[in-house]
Amino acid sequence: MRVLVTGNMGYVGSELVKVLRREIAGVYLAGFDSGFFAHCLTTEKRAPETNLDCQYFGDIRSIPDSLLKDMDAVIHLAAVSNDPIGNKFESITEDINFKASVDLARRAAEQGVGRFVFASSCSMYGFAGEEARKEKDALNPLTAYARSKAATEQALESLCASSATCMTSLRFSTACGMSDRLRLDLVLNDFVASALSTGNITVLSDGTPWRPLIDVKDMARAMLWALRRDTEQTGHYVAVNVGSDEQNYQVRDLANAVASALPGTTVSINTAAPPDKRSYRVDFSLYKELAPDHQPQVMLAQSIRELVEGMQALDFTDENFRLSGLMRLNTLENHIAERRLSRELYWL
Ranges for the NAD-dependent epimerase/dehydratase domain (predicted)? Predict the structure, then answer.
C-alpha cells in the first residue's frame, strides 16, 4: 500500500506515521507538509519523519498532481489547526481547510487514489446542550475552523457520489496526549502544563462545558481503520464521530483529574464566567458498530500520565508556556514577525 499523509509534521501526524509504519506491512509512506512546525520537536528520540520513505515540503493550496499519482490512499491532516488560529486568519482558514481540502480530494479522485481520509471534528456540533449528538443531528459550527470542517464534509459527500474513491470523514473528539510535536493549546494538555509549571489549574469558564476527548494514539487507530474499512458494510462515503462515550467530560472533571494525578495541585474555577457556547456531548455508537476492532484504548488517566512523564522528561517548568511556541498561533505569529511567513501563510 502507498499512502500520502498531508500535515504529517504536526501534533497528530507525528504520531500517525509511527502507527502506519508499525501496523501496515510493506507500506510506502510519503509525507507532505508546509514545515511551519517542523522545529517544534518535543522528543529526545528519533524524528518521526524517519518513519517515512519520502518527505515533501510545500503548500497544500498547490500540491502537485505528481505526488498523488500511484498513491493508494491519502490521509489529509493539513489544516489551520484550531479556533484561535482560525479566528486570526479566517479567510485563510477557508482557503486551506475548505477550498484546498476539496481540491485535493477532487484531484486525488482524478488520479485514481482509492481512499481519501479526512480529519474532521466534533466541534461542528457547537453548542449542543446535554443530549449527545449523533452523525445525523444538525450541525452548529460556531467558529471559522468548525465551519471549514462542515463545509468540507458536505463537499466530500457530493464528490464521492460521482467518484470511485472511498472517502471517510472522521469527526474527531478534542485531541489530547503526548506527541513528538506536543501542542499545549488543547484543554487537557494545557491543564497538565499548568499543574506542572505553577501547581495550579485555572479554568476560565464555569467548568460545565462538555468536551469529548481522544488521545492522539487512538486518532491514529481510527485512521488505520479508515484505510481498511469494508465499504460494503460502511458505504462508499461515511462521516463518523470518533471517540468513546466514556470519554465525554465536563471541563471541570478534566481539571480535577489532572489535580488528582499531581497531588498538591489546586483548581480555580471561574463560576461567574458567562456560558461557553462551545459545549457538546457526542454519541459514538456508530463508530463502535463500524470499527469494533479500532475502539479507543487510551483512557483519561493514561493520557494524563503520559503527558506528565513526557513533559517531565523535557524538564518542563515554563510558567509562561502560553506565550511559547508550544501554542501553534504563537509559532505562526513569530514566523510572520521574523518575516519568514507572509500574512497569507506563504513562506517568503
Answer: 3-243
State residue 275's pLDDT score: 64
User: Tell me, what DSSP letter sits at residue 22?
Assistant: H
Counting other chains too, the contacts that 252-260 makes at CB distance below 8 Å and 24 or more residues apart are 252/203, 252/207, 252/208, 254/187, 254/188, 254/191, 254/211, 254/213, 254/300, 255/191, 255/201, 255/203, 255/207, 257/300, 257/301, 257/304, 258/188, 258/191, 258/192, 258/195, 258/201, 258/304, 259/195, 259/201
**pLDDT, tens only, 12-56:** 999 999 999 999 999 999 999 999 999 999 987 789 999 999 999
Q: Which residues contact 185 (CB under 8 A, 6 or more apart)?
A: 82, 84, 326, 327, 328, 329
Q: What is the residue type of 211?
A: R
Coil, helix or strand for 177? coil
Asked if residue 52 is part of any domain, the answer here is: yes
Cα–Cα distance between 234 and 292 in angstroms, integer?
13
The count of structural domains within the chain is 1
Q: The CATH number of the domain where 63 resides is what?
A: 3.40.50.720
> What residue numbers bound the domain in which 153 lies?
2-176+214-246+280-297+328-337
> Amino acid identity of 335?
H
In a domain, 123, yes or no: yes
Residue 31 CA to residue 35 CA, distance in Å, equals: 11
Q: What residues does 54 pair with on adjacent strands?
A: 30
Residue 21 domain flag: yes
Single out the residue of 216, 189, 191, 184 nearest to residue 205, CA to CA. 191
The tens digit of pLDDT for each residue in 60-110 reads 999 999 999 999 999 999 999 888 898 899 999 999 999 999 999 999 999
- The interaxial angle of helices 187-198 and 251-261, nearest 10 deg, is 40
